[in-house]
UniProtKB/TrEMBL annotation:
Keyword set, alphabetical order: Cholesterol metabolism, Heme, Iron, Lipid degradation, Lipid metabolism, Metal-binding, Monooxygenase, Oxidoreductase, Steroid metabolism, Sterol metabolism
A Pfam family the protein falls into: p450
Domain of life: Bacteria
GO function terms (MF aspect): cholest-4-en-3-one 26-monooxygenase activity; heme binding; iron ion binding; steroid hydroxylase activity
Protein name (Swiss-Prot/TrEMBL): Steroid C26-monooxygenase
Lineage start: Bacteria, Bacillati, Actinomycetota, Actinomycetes, Mycobacteriales
Family: Belongs to the cytochrome P450 family.
Key word Hydrolase present: no
CDD domains: CYP142-like (cd11033)
GO biological process, one term: cholesterol catabolic process
Cofactor entry: heme
Pathway(s) annotated for this protein in UniProt: Steroid metabolism; cholesterol degradation
Length: 416
Protein backbone atom coordinates (compact mmCIF):
# COMPACT_ATOMS: atom_id res chain seq x y z
CA UNK A 1 0.00 0.00 0.00
CA UNK A 2 1.03 3.62 -0.54
CA UNK A 3 2.25 5.63 2.43
CA UNK A 4 0.00 8.60 3.26
CA UNK A 5 1.73 11.94 2.93
CA UNK A 6 0.94 15.49 3.95
CA UNK A 7 0.82 17.96 1.08
CA UNK A 8 0.58 21.71 1.58
CA UNK A 9 -1.24 22.05 -1.75
CA UNK A 10 -4.19 20.12 -0.29
CA UNK A 11 -4.68 22.74 2.42
CA UNK A 12 -6.39 25.01 -0.10
CA UNK A 13 -9.42 22.73 0.11
CA UNK A 14 -9.82 23.76 3.76
CA UNK A 15 -9.37 27.46 2.96
CA UNK A 16 -12.58 29.26 1.91
CA UNK A 17 -10.62 32.14 0.39
CA UNK A 18 -8.97 29.77 -2.11
CA UNK A 19 -12.33 29.30 -3.84
CA UNK A 20 -12.42 33.04 -4.51
CA UNK A 21 -9.12 32.74 -6.42
CA UNK A 22 -9.46 30.41 -9.42
CA UNK A 23 -5.77 30.47 -10.33
CA UNK A 24 -4.60 29.56 -6.85
CA UNK A 25 -7.24 26.85 -6.46
CA UNK A 26 -6.69 25.14 -9.79
CA UNK A 27 -2.90 25.28 -9.54
CA UNK A 28 -3.14 23.33 -6.29
CA UNK A 29 -5.66 20.86 -7.70
CA UNK A 30 -3.53 20.20 -10.80
CA UNK A 31 -0.64 19.35 -8.51
CA UNK A 32 -2.76 17.01 -6.39
CA UNK A 33 -4.22 15.15 -9.37
CA UNK A 34 -0.76 14.57 -10.76
CA UNK A 35 1.21 13.86 -7.60
CA UNK A 36 -1.04 13.16 -4.60
CA UNK A 37 -4.60 12.29 -5.62
CA UNK A 38 -5.46 10.91 -2.17
CA UNK A 39 -3.97 13.53 0.12
CA UNK A 40 -4.25 13.80 3.88
CA UNK A 41 -5.38 17.26 5.01
CA UNK A 42 -4.88 18.32 8.61
CA UNK A 43 -5.66 22.01 8.69
CA UNK A 44 -7.36 23.28 11.88
CA UNK A 45 -9.99 24.45 12.69
CA UNK A 46 -11.20 21.57 10.45
CA UNK A 47 -10.89 17.95 11.50
CA UNK A 48 -8.54 15.86 9.30
CA UNK A 49 -9.81 14.37 6.04
CA UNK A 50 -8.58 12.74 2.85
CA UNK A 51 -8.81 14.91 -0.28
CA UNK A 52 -9.95 12.89 -3.32
CA UNK A 53 -9.21 14.83 -6.50
CA UNK A 54 -9.48 12.31 -9.37
CA UNK A 55 -12.76 11.87 -11.27
CA UNK A 56 -12.45 8.06 -11.32
CA UNK A 57 -11.96 7.80 -7.56
CA UNK A 58 -14.85 10.14 -6.76
CA UNK A 59 -17.21 8.11 -8.94
CA UNK A 60 -16.07 4.86 -7.29
CA UNK A 61 -16.72 6.30 -3.83
CA UNK A 62 -20.15 7.59 -4.86
CA UNK A 63 -21.05 4.13 -6.20
CA UNK A 64 -20.01 2.49 -2.93
CA UNK A 65 -22.68 4.27 -0.90
CA UNK A 66 -22.90 1.40 1.59
CA UNK A 67 -19.19 1.76 2.36
CA UNK A 68 -18.83 5.54 2.20
CA UNK A 69 -21.64 7.20 4.15
CA UNK A 70 -23.00 10.74 4.20
CA UNK A 71 -23.56 10.63 7.96
CA UNK A 72 -22.15 12.03 10.15
CA UNK A 73 -20.06 14.45 8.05
CA UNK A 74 -21.68 15.24 4.68
CA UNK A 75 -19.75 18.46 4.02
CA UNK A 76 -16.71 20.31 5.26
CA UNK A 77 -17.17 22.59 8.25
CA UNK A 78 -15.06 23.46 11.26
CA UNK A 79 -14.84 21.07 14.20
CA UNK A 80 -16.75 23.56 16.34
CA UNK A 81 -19.53 23.85 13.73
CA UNK A 82 -19.65 20.04 13.39
CA UNK A 83 -20.09 19.64 17.15
CA UNK A 84 -22.76 22.34 17.33
CA UNK A 85 -24.71 20.80 14.43
CA UNK A 86 -24.62 17.40 16.16
CA UNK A 87 -25.87 18.91 19.41
CA UNK A 88 -28.65 20.75 17.60
CA UNK A 89 -29.79 17.54 15.91
CA UNK A 90 -29.80 15.68 19.21
CA UNK A 91 -31.98 18.48 20.58
CA UNK A 92 -34.40 18.10 17.67
CA UNK A 93 -33.48 21.43 16.07
CA UNK A 94 -30.71 20.68 13.60
CA UNK A 95 -30.46 20.31 9.84
CA UNK A 96 -30.86 16.87 8.25
CA UNK A 97 -31.43 17.25 4.54
CA UNK A 98 -31.18 14.66 1.77
CA UNK A 99 -27.43 15.29 1.61
CA UNK A 100 -27.12 14.24 5.26
CA UNK A 101 -28.98 10.94 4.83
CA UNK A 102 -28.04 7.42 3.77
CA UNK A 103 -30.15 4.64 2.30
CA UNK A 104 -32.67 3.24 2.90
CA UNK A 105 -34.04 6.33 4.68
CA UNK A 106 -32.54 8.66 2.06
CA UNK A 107 -34.30 6.86 -0.78
CA UNK A 108 -37.69 7.03 0.97
CA UNK A 109 -37.40 10.71 1.84
CA UNK A 110 -36.11 11.62 -1.62
CA UNK A 111 -39.19 9.99 -3.18
CA UNK A 112 -41.47 12.57 -1.52
CA UNK A 113 -40.30 15.34 -3.84
CA UNK A 114 -39.04 13.31 -6.79
CA UNK A 115 -42.19 13.52 -8.92
CA UNK A 116 -41.95 17.30 -8.99
CA UNK A 117 -38.65 17.08 -10.88
CA UNK A 118 -39.38 14.23 -13.31
CA UNK A 119 -39.48 14.84 -17.11
CA UNK A 120 -43.27 15.22 -17.27
CA UNK A 121 -43.25 17.83 -14.52
CA UNK A 122 -40.44 19.67 -16.30
CA UNK A 123 -42.39 19.68 -19.57
CA UNK A 124 -45.41 21.09 -17.77
CA UNK A 125 -43.25 23.79 -16.17
CA UNK A 126 -41.34 24.82 -19.29
CA UNK A 127 -43.87 27.37 -20.57
CA UNK A 128 -43.70 29.20 -17.24
CA UNK A 129 -39.89 29.06 -17.14
CA UNK A 130 -39.70 30.44 -20.69
CA UNK A 131 -42.02 33.30 -19.68
CA UNK A 132 -39.83 34.11 -16.69
CA UNK A 133 -36.68 33.97 -18.83
CA UNK A 134 -38.19 36.57 -21.15
CA UNK A 135 -39.24 38.69 -18.17
CA UNK A 136 -35.71 38.80 -16.80
CA UNK A 137 -34.03 39.43 -20.15
CA UNK A 138 -36.53 42.28 -20.67
CA UNK A 139 -35.60 43.55 -17.23
CA UNK A 140 -31.93 43.37 -18.16
CA UNK A 141 -32.69 45.50 -21.24
CA UNK A 142 -34.66 48.01 -19.21
CA UNK A 143 -32.02 48.55 -16.51
CA UNK A 144 -29.12 48.65 -19.02
CA UNK A 145 -26.69 49.50 -20.41
CA UNK A 146 -24.92 48.32 -17.23
CA UNK A 147 -25.87 46.00 -14.38
CA UNK A 148 -24.51 43.55 -11.85
CA UNK A 149 -25.69 40.41 -13.61
CA UNK A 150 -25.51 38.28 -10.45
CA UNK A 151 -27.60 40.45 -8.14
CA UNK A 152 -30.05 41.74 -10.77
CA UNK A 153 -30.66 38.68 -12.97
CA UNK A 154 -28.87 35.44 -12.07
CA UNK A 155 -30.20 35.39 -8.49
CA UNK A 156 -33.75 36.42 -9.17
CA UNK A 157 -34.69 34.24 -12.15
CA UNK A 158 -34.10 30.79 -10.53
CA UNK A 159 -35.28 32.14 -7.16
CA UNK A 160 -38.63 33.05 -8.71
CA UNK A 161 -38.91 29.61 -10.36
CA UNK A 162 -38.22 27.53 -7.24
CA UNK A 163 -40.28 29.74 -4.92
CA UNK A 164 -43.21 29.49 -7.34
CA UNK A 165 -42.81 25.70 -7.46
CA UNK A 166 -42.93 25.59 -3.67
CA UNK A 167 -45.97 27.88 -3.71
CA UNK A 168 -44.45 30.61 -1.50
CA UNK A 169 -45.79 34.18 -1.71
CA UNK A 170 -43.69 36.62 -3.73
CA UNK A 171 -43.27 38.95 -0.76
CA UNK A 172 -41.21 36.21 0.95
CA UNK A 173 -38.77 35.67 -1.93
CA UNK A 174 -36.31 38.29 -0.65
CA UNK A 175 -36.22 36.72 2.80
CA UNK A 176 -35.45 33.30 1.32
CA UNK A 177 -32.64 34.79 -0.76
CA UNK A 178 -31.08 36.59 2.21
CA UNK A 179 -31.20 33.48 4.40
CA UNK A 180 -29.66 31.40 1.60
CA UNK A 181 -26.81 33.88 1.19
CA UNK A 182 -26.15 33.79 4.93
CA UNK A 183 -26.25 29.98 5.07
CA UNK A 184 -23.99 29.24 2.10
CA UNK A 185 -21.91 32.39 2.63
CA UNK A 186 -20.93 31.72 6.21
CA UNK A 187 -17.25 31.99 5.25
CA UNK A 188 -17.65 35.12 3.12
CA UNK A 189 -17.23 38.55 4.74
CA UNK A 190 -19.97 40.07 2.59
CA UNK A 191 -22.58 37.38 3.25
CA UNK A 192 -22.02 35.93 6.71
CA UNK A 193 -24.30 36.92 9.57
CA UNK A 194 -21.70 36.49 12.30
CA UNK A 195 -18.30 35.05 13.12
CA UNK A 196 -19.27 32.26 15.51
CA UNK A 197 -21.03 28.97 14.74
CA UNK A 198 -23.79 30.04 17.16
CA UNK A 199 -24.42 33.25 15.20
CA UNK A 200 -24.46 31.32 11.93
CA UNK A 201 -26.76 28.67 13.44
CA UNK A 202 -29.27 31.48 14.00
CA UNK A 203 -29.73 31.55 10.21
CA UNK A 204 -30.92 27.96 10.33
CA UNK A 205 -33.30 28.72 13.17
CA UNK A 206 -34.81 31.54 11.08
CA UNK A 207 -35.34 29.07 8.24
CA UNK A 208 -36.95 26.59 10.62
CA UNK A 209 -39.25 29.21 12.11
CA UNK A 210 -40.52 30.18 8.67
CA UNK A 211 -40.98 26.62 7.44
CA UNK A 212 -42.62 25.39 10.65
CA UNK A 213 -45.42 27.88 10.05
CA UNK A 214 -45.59 26.84 6.39
CA UNK A 215 -45.86 23.16 7.37
CA UNK A 216 -48.72 23.85 9.75
CA UNK A 217 -50.53 25.84 7.07
CA UNK A 218 -50.13 23.19 4.34
CA UNK A 219 -51.18 20.37 6.65
CA UNK A 220 -54.31 22.26 7.67
CA UNK A 221 -55.08 23.40 4.10
CA UNK A 222 -53.21 21.34 1.46
CA UNK A 223 -52.61 23.00 -1.89
CA UNK A 224 -51.27 21.86 -5.25
CA UNK A 225 -47.62 22.77 -4.76
CA UNK A 226 -44.33 21.24 -3.68
CA UNK A 227 -44.64 22.73 -0.19
CA UNK A 228 -47.81 20.67 0.37
CA UNK A 229 -46.14 17.52 -0.96
CA UNK A 230 -43.35 17.97 1.60
CA UNK A 231 -45.62 18.95 4.49
CA UNK A 232 -47.85 15.93 3.93
CA UNK A 233 -45.15 13.47 2.92
CA UNK A 234 -44.82 10.16 4.76
CA UNK A 235 -42.13 7.53 5.26
CA UNK A 236 -43.33 4.02 6.07
CA UNK A 237 -46.79 5.44 6.71
CA UNK A 238 -45.58 8.03 9.22
CA UNK A 239 -45.34 11.81 8.65
CA UNK A 240 -41.87 13.26 8.32
CA UNK A 241 -40.35 14.47 11.57
CA UNK A 242 -40.29 18.23 12.17
CA UNK A 243 -36.54 18.25 11.53
CA UNK A 244 -36.82 16.31 8.26
CA UNK A 245 -39.75 18.42 7.02
CA UNK A 246 -38.05 21.74 7.70
CA UNK A 247 -34.77 20.43 6.31
CA UNK A 248 -36.48 19.33 3.09
CA UNK A 249 -37.77 22.87 2.59
CA UNK A 250 -34.37 24.35 3.35
CA UNK A 251 -32.50 22.29 0.76
CA UNK A 252 -35.10 22.84 -1.97
CA UNK A 253 -35.53 26.57 -1.29
CA UNK A 254 -31.81 27.33 -0.95
CA UNK A 255 -29.87 24.94 -3.18
CA UNK A 256 -32.80 25.00 -5.61
CA UNK A 257 -31.93 28.50 -6.71
CA UNK A 258 -28.44 29.36 -5.45
CA UNK A 259 -26.58 26.66 -7.36
CA UNK A 260 -28.40 27.62 -10.58
CA UNK A 261 -27.48 31.25 -9.97
CA UNK A 262 -23.83 30.22 -9.80
CA UNK A 263 -24.04 28.21 -13.02
CA UNK A 264 -25.88 30.97 -14.91
CA UNK A 265 -23.48 33.74 -13.88
CA UNK A 266 -20.41 31.53 -14.31
CA UNK A 267 -21.69 30.52 -17.74
CA UNK A 268 -22.15 34.11 -18.87
CA UNK A 269 -18.68 35.06 -17.67
CA UNK A 270 -17.22 32.12 -19.60
CA UNK A 271 -18.99 33.32 -22.76
CA UNK A 272 -17.71 36.88 -22.25
CA UNK A 273 -14.16 35.63 -21.75
CA UNK A 274 -14.45 33.31 -24.78
CA UNK A 275 -16.14 35.47 -27.45
CA UNK A 276 -15.43 32.91 -30.16
CA UNK A 277 -17.50 30.34 -28.25
CA UNK A 278 -20.27 32.89 -27.70
CA UNK A 279 -20.42 33.58 -31.43
CA UNK A 280 -20.32 29.85 -32.16
CA UNK A 281 -23.36 29.36 -29.92
CA UNK A 282 -25.19 32.32 -31.47
CA UNK A 283 -24.54 30.92 -34.95
CA UNK A 284 -25.66 27.42 -33.98
CA UNK A 285 -28.43 27.46 -31.31
CA UNK A 286 -28.55 23.67 -31.62
CA UNK A 287 -25.46 23.64 -29.39
CA UNK A 288 -27.39 25.06 -26.44
CA UNK A 289 -27.72 21.66 -24.75
CA UNK A 290 -23.98 20.97 -24.75
CA UNK A 291 -23.24 24.63 -23.96
CA UNK A 292 -25.34 24.44 -20.79
CA UNK A 293 -23.50 21.29 -19.69
CA UNK A 294 -20.18 23.04 -20.28
CA UNK A 295 -21.29 26.06 -18.23
CA UNK A 296 -22.24 23.72 -15.40
CA UNK A 297 -18.88 21.90 -15.61
CA UNK A 298 -16.99 25.16 -15.80
CA UNK A 299 -18.65 26.78 -12.79
CA UNK A 300 -19.12 23.68 -10.56
CA UNK A 301 -21.42 25.40 -8.02
CA UNK A 302 -21.21 22.54 -5.48
CA UNK A 303 -17.50 22.29 -4.72
CA UNK A 304 -17.56 19.18 -2.56
CA UNK A 305 -19.36 16.63 -0.48
CA UNK A 306 -17.80 14.39 2.13
CA UNK A 307 -18.24 10.72 3.00
CA UNK A 308 -17.17 8.70 6.04
CA UNK A 309 -15.80 5.18 5.74
CA UNK A 310 -18.05 2.57 7.39
CA UNK A 311 -15.20 0.02 7.38
CA UNK A 312 -11.44 -0.03 6.82
CA UNK A 313 -10.80 0.30 3.10
CA UNK A 314 -8.43 1.77 0.52
CA UNK A 315 -8.63 4.41 -2.19
CA UNK A 316 -5.98 4.20 -4.91
CA UNK A 317 -3.94 2.00 -2.59
CA UNK A 318 -4.07 4.47 0.30
CA UNK A 319 -5.56 3.00 3.52
CA UNK A 320 -8.67 4.78 4.80
CA UNK A 321 -9.63 3.68 8.31
CA UNK A 322 -13.17 3.16 9.52
CA UNK A 323 -14.52 6.53 10.70
CA UNK A 324 -12.17 8.61 8.57
CA UNK A 325 -13.64 11.12 6.11
CA UNK A 326 -12.99 11.65 2.41
CA UNK A 327 -13.54 14.96 0.65
CA UNK A 328 -14.94 14.57 -2.88
CA UNK A 329 -13.47 17.50 -4.79
CA UNK A 330 -15.95 17.90 -7.66
CA UNK A 331 -14.25 21.13 -8.69
CA UNK A 332 -11.10 19.07 -9.33
CA UNK A 333 -12.87 16.13 -11.00
CA UNK A 334 -14.41 18.53 -13.51
CA UNK A 335 -10.94 19.55 -14.73
CA UNK A 336 -9.41 16.06 -14.67
CA UNK A 337 -7.02 15.68 -17.60
CA UNK A 338 -7.72 11.94 -17.79
CA UNK A 339 -11.43 12.56 -18.46
CA UNK A 340 -11.70 15.84 -20.35
CA UNK A 341 -9.86 16.79 -23.52
CA UNK A 342 -8.22 20.16 -22.79
CA UNK A 343 -10.15 20.60 -19.53
CA UNK A 344 -9.19 24.26 -19.17
CA UNK A 345 -10.72 25.14 -22.54
CA UNK A 346 -14.33 26.32 -22.48
CA UNK A 347 -16.05 24.45 -25.33
CA UNK A 348 -19.78 24.96 -25.97
CA UNK A 349 -19.82 21.82 -28.12
CA UNK A 350 -18.01 19.55 -25.64
CA UNK A 351 -19.33 16.02 -26.06
CA UNK A 352 -19.08 13.80 -24.11
CA UNK A 353 -19.08 15.88 -20.96
CA UNK A 354 -18.92 13.63 -17.91
CA UNK A 355 -18.90 16.43 -15.34
CA UNK A 356 -19.79 15.68 -11.73
CA UNK A 357 -21.43 19.02 -10.90
CA UNK A 358 -24.68 17.25 -9.99
CA UNK A 359 -22.92 14.51 -8.05
CA UNK A 360 -23.22 10.87 -9.00
CA UNK A 361 -25.07 7.78 -7.82
CA UNK A 362 -27.85 7.78 -5.23
CA UNK A 363 -27.23 11.41 -4.30
CA UNK A 364 -27.44 12.73 -7.87
CA UNK A 365 -29.02 16.19 -7.66
CA UNK A 366 -32.82 16.01 -7.42
CA UNK A 367 -33.19 19.32 -9.29
CA UNK A 368 -30.70 18.72 -12.12
CA UNK A 369 -33.36 18.71 -14.86
CA UNK A 370 -34.85 21.96 -13.57
CA UNK A 371 -31.44 23.69 -13.48
CA UNK A 372 -30.68 22.58 -17.03
CA UNK A 373 -34.07 23.79 -18.25
CA UNK A 374 -33.73 27.19 -16.55
CA UNK A 375 -30.30 27.77 -18.06
CA UNK A 376 -31.43 26.64 -21.50
CA UNK A 377 -34.43 28.98 -21.39
CA UNK A 378 -32.46 32.00 -20.18
CA UNK A 379 -29.59 31.75 -22.66
CA UNK A 380 -31.95 30.84 -25.52
CA UNK A 381 -33.78 34.11 -24.81
CA UNK A 382 -30.69 36.21 -24.11
CA UNK A 383 -28.17 35.39 -26.83
CA UNK A 384 -30.23 36.25 -29.95
CA UNK A 385 -31.03 39.64 -28.40
CA UNK A 386 -27.48 40.40 -27.27
CA UNK A 387 -25.76 42.89 -29.58
CA UNK A 388 -22.69 43.48 -27.43
CA UNK A 389 -21.42 42.63 -23.95
CA UNK A 390 -18.25 43.25 -21.93
CA UNK A 391 -17.11 43.40 -18.35
CA UNK A 392 -17.75 46.72 -16.60
CA UNK A 393 -15.57 45.82 -13.62
CA UNK A 394 -13.80 42.86 -12.03
CA UNK A 395 -15.90 39.76 -11.31
CA UNK A 396 -15.89 38.64 -7.66
CA UNK A 397 -16.13 35.06 -6.41
CA UNK A 398 -17.47 34.11 -2.98
CA UNK A 399 -15.28 32.59 -0.29
CA UNK A 400 -16.67 29.15 0.47
CA UNK A 401 -15.79 25.48 0.79
CA UNK A 402 -19.23 24.21 -0.20
CA UNK A 403 -21.65 26.05 -2.54
CA UNK A 404 -20.57 29.17 -4.33
CA UNK A 405 -19.58 31.06 -7.41
CA UNK A 406 -19.74 34.63 -8.61
CA UNK A 407 -21.25 37.12 -6.19
CA UNK A 408 -20.73 40.12 -8.49
CA UNK A 409 -20.51 40.28 -12.29
CA UNK A 410 -20.62 43.89 -13.51
CA UNK A 411 -21.36 44.02 -17.25
CA UNK A 412 -21.93 46.61 -19.97
CA UNK A 413 -24.15 45.53 -22.85
CA UNK A 414 -26.65 46.33 -25.58
CA UNK A 415 -29.84 44.31 -25.92
CA UNK A 416 -32.56 44.29 -28.51
Amino acid sequence: MSTPTMDDAAKVLADPTAYADDQRLHAALRHLRAHNPVALVDNPPYRPFWAITKHEDIMAIERANDLFLSEPRPLLSTAQADDLAKAQLEAGMGLRTLIHMDDPHHRKVRAIGADWFRPKAMRDLKVRVDELAKRYVDRMRDIGPECDFVTEIAVNFPLYVIMSLLGLPEEDFGRMHSLTQEMFGGDDDEYKRGTTPEEQMAVLLDFFSYFSALTASRRANPTDDLASAIANGTVDGEPLSDVDTASYYVIVASAGHDTTKDAISGGLLALIENPGEMQRLKDDPGLMGTAVEEMIRWSTPVKEFMRTAAEDTTVRGVPIAKGESVYLAYVSANRDEDIFDEPFRFDVGRDPNKHLSFGYGVHFCLGAALARMEMNSLFTELLPRLESIELAGPPELSATTFVGGLKHLPIRYQLR
